[in-house]
Specification:
11 helices, elongated, 13% strand, Alpha-Beta Plaits, 331 residues, alpha+beta, 60% helix, 4-stranded antiparallel β-sheet, 8 strands, two-stranded antiparallel sheet
């Protein structure tokens, strides 16, 4: 096997493979042997049919399996040898497969290197939640009163006060959430400034496409032409791509922090996360865990917890500024 590595940049890699006749023949013998074990051909006992008959009868399957096996073997061997860490499914193209030669190219995007100058002790301006005034509560209550299903439940003073208390709590919770979001935006702005990373364009596009598909499913596209739907998709993609880019960048920053901090996740933490999922779904823990194991999702949960723990470290080490004193202002 001959392999040529072409690096378009730090993370965008093309691998060019050429496999000779001897390697193809060797794999062919293995494939025929595997097929021979299981097939039943009239006139022969199971596993006893001559290989020339099997080769003639299953030539398309044999060629398909040779290709699949050699591509998989070549790819896995190469990424191990080169210490590559792919972050998206490989793209196979420019395939040429004859009796004498198999050649193909595989394009893949690799995990980017991340350099973080600072992630502890980041300065953030403390954001105080906006105070909820009585008029805000009254305005919200008036909106409720316009709805017939609520008007009867807030007629007497006691019930009205109960609703006002509930509305105030909800409004205060929203203001607190807004303040926290503003602080987190500041935090990420500083983390982005302190980080050097080559962004994986293919992964970003894949994530943006996923967001686009989700939005399209929520739209009423009945009666729309294919062209109209494609236009909607293109517009949505343009809108969500910057968000996808930020999310991908955030992930790799936190992944690097988790690496620096040697963060590990044990089985108890995974079970606790699955327990949370099962409560939200209203399904038994064992049933949810079995399904996650079957779908190979446990490692994704482990990674999710690992990333959460990294973000927790960053947030626990924020240095809050109560107010910014400008030149000329009293201290």
């Amino acid at each position: 096997m001959r392999v040529e590595i072409n690096k378009k940049n730090e993370i965008d890699v093309e691998m060019v493979f050429e496999i000779n006749k001897e390697e193809i023949e060797e794999e062919k013998r293995k494939v025929i042997s595997e097929i021979k074990k299981d097939v039943e051909i009239e006139g022969f006992r199971k596993g006893k049919a001559p290989e020339n008959i099997i080769e003639k009868k299953f030539q398309n399957l044999i060629k398909e399996n040779i290709f699949k096996n050699l591509v998989s073997k070549s790819y896995i061997e190469t990424i191990k040898k080169e210490n590559f860490i792919p972050i998206i499914e490989p793209e196979i193209y420019d395939v040429e497969f004859t009796d004498d030669k198999l050649s193909f190219k595989i394009g893949v995007e690799l995990k980017p290197n991340v350099e973080i100058k600072k992630y502890k002790g980041i300065l953030i301006k403390k954001v105080e939640p906006k105070k909820v005034e009585e008029k805000d509560v009254e305005n919200a209550l008036r909106e409720l009163e316009k709805r017939p299903e609520f008007s009867a439940s807030i007629i007497d003073l006691e019930k009205r006060n109960m609703w006002k208390k509930r509305i105030r709590e909800e409004l205060e919770a929203k203001e607190k959430e807004k303040a926290q979001l503003e602080e987190e935006n500041q935090l990420w702005e500083e983390l982005f400034k302190n980080t050097k990373i080559t962004l994986p364009e293919k992964l970003i596009n894949k994530r943006a496409s996923k967001y686009t598909e989700y939005q399209l499913k929520r739209m009423d596209l009945k009666g729309k032409t294919k062209e109209e739907i494609e236009n909607y998709a293109n517009e949505i993609f343009k809108i969500v791509k910057p968000y996808a880019e930020k999310e991908v960048k955030k992930y790799f920053i936190l992944d690097k922090i988790a690496e620096i901090e040697n963060i590990e996740v044990d089985e108890k933490e995974i079970d606790e996360r699955i327990e949370m999922y099962s409560r939200n779904l209203g399904r038994p823990f064992d049933e949810v865990k079995k399904e996650l194991l079957k779908n190979g999702e446990i490692e994704n949960i482990r990674d999710e917890i690992r990333i959460d723990k990294a973000y927790k470290i960053v947030k626990e080490n924020i240095n809050y500024i109560e107010r910014i004193v400008l030149p000329g202002q009293e201290k």
